[in-house]
């Protein structure tokens, strides 16, 4: 197995290990256990975590590692998010589940492609974080990359090379929501850092489409308010979620007007190194694109024919 994740600039190997032991609950999640002898209890504990995650991912495309980040780590991650929050790109759009904003005349008015809902949220871009910070230390930890690869049952995992979307935080201020949508990536990794007091719940309907079937009928029912097959997660601060959002419709419900903001760290990884995000989605989420995005768009090859 090969995993690629550079240590945060300015941290040597010893400092990195000490930082991770403070940020990640190593009693519950002994990341070092994978390489220990089978006779060591930490080895069994590691693989128990992996099997638990694999079970969830196989059954409905979602796994939650409860209290993965320590309370002290949660506090520090939230302090860093609050410090970077002035650089958040907030936007309000009406989008369909595929992030499109315009009516498609090829489909009827009540078709999912022409069903639009308010998206009002913000993203802190990857270039907003300082060179050395706790959120980056967790994201780039080779031990975490290796654990995630084992959970996803893949050989190679790399930190998303996108300079804006690799390491981000999603912000939902009071009154904001992230409506039903699909991801462009096969999977996403998030850590809930600060939950809303009311609202801000993660909901998903697993496997409503596939690479060769858009599943419009099922999606239409959900957009109309149906609840068949919908899961609602009771995520708590420090919970790490692995989610296959390419084929599962999902949303974060509206945060109540009287609530504190919802903050979630988003750790993006890819099967191949050097991957850069799509221009259109990048501009929607971050309000800008860089030269790297424009160059990658010219040579991009799609892996499926889904709407997005």
Provide a descriptive summary of the structure in words.
It is a single chain. By secondary structure, the protein is α+β, with helices and mostly antiparallel strands. The chain has one domain: q2cbj1_9rhob like domain (Jelly Rolls), CATH 2.60.120.620. Helices cover 28% and strands 21% of the residues. It has a seven-stranded antiparallel sheet with strand order 2-11-8-13-6-4-3. A four-stranded antiparallel sheet has the order 7-12-9-10, with helices on one face. Strands 1-5-14 form a three-stranded mixed sheet, with helices on one face. The protein is globular. About 2% of the residues have low confidence.
How much strand? 15-25%
* Poorly predicted runs of 5 or more residues: 6-11
How many domains? The number is 1
* CATH-defined architecture: Sandwich
Mean pLDDT: 93
Which tags fit this structure?
single chain; 308 residues; alpha+beta; Jelly Rolls; seven-stranded antiparallel β-sheet; four-stranded antiparallel β-sheet; 8 helices
Write the layout of secondary structure elements.
Layout: E1 2-4, H1 13-23, H2 41-60, E2 62-65, H3 71-84, E3 89-95, E4 117-124, H4 134-140, H5 142-152, E5 156-159, E6 167-172, E7 178-181, E8 188-194, E9 202-205, H6 216-223, E10 231-233, E11 240-243, E12 249-252, E13 262-267, E14 269-270, H7 279-286, H8 291-298
Parallel strand pairs: 1-5
Antiparallel strand pairs: 2-11, 3-4, 4-6, 5-14, 6-13, 7-12, 8-11, 8-13, 9-10, 9-12
Helix pairs in contact: 2-5
Structure described in brief:
With 308 residues, the protein is α+β, with helices and mostly antiparallel strands. The chain is built from 8 helices and 14 strands.
């Amino acid at each position: 197995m090969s995993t690629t994740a550079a240590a945060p600039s300015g941290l040597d190997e010893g400092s990195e290990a000490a930082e991770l032991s403070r940020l990640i609950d190593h009693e519950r999640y002994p990341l070092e256990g994978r390489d220990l002898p089978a006779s060591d209890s930490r080895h069994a504990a590691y693989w128990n975590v992996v099997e638990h995650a694999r079970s969830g991912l196989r059954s409905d495309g979602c796994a939650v590692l409860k209290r993965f980040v320590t309370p002290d780590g949660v506090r520090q991650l939230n302090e860093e998010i609050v410090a970077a929050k002035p650089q958040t790109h907030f936007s309000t759009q009406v989008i369909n589940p595929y992030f499109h904003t315009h009516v498609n005349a090829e489909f009827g008015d009540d078709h999912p492609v022409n069903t639009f809902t308010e998206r009002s949220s913000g993203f802190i871009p990857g270039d907003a974080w300082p060179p050395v910070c706790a959120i980056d230390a967790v994201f780039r930890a080779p031990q975490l990359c290796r654990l995630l690869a084992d959970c996803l049952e893949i050989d190679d995992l790399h930190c998303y090379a996108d300079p804006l979307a690799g390491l981000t935080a999603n912000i939902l201020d009071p009154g904001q929501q992230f409506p039903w949508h699909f991801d462009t990536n096969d999977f996403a990794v998030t850590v809930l850092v600060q939950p809303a007091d009311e609202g801000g719940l993660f909901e998903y309907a697993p496997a409503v489409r596939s690479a060769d079937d858009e599943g419009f009928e099922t999606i239409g029912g959900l957009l109309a308010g149906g609840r068949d097959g919908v899961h609602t997660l009771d995520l708590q601060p420090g919970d790490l979620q692995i989610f296959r959002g390419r084929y599962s419709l999902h949303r974060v419900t509206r945060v109540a007007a009287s609530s504190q903001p919802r903050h979630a760290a988003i750790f993006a990884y890819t099967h191949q190194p050097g991957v850069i995000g799509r221009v259109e989605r990048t501009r929607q989420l971050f309000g800008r694109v860089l030269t790297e995005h424009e160059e990658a768009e010219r040579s991009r090859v799609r892996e499926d024919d889904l709407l997005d």
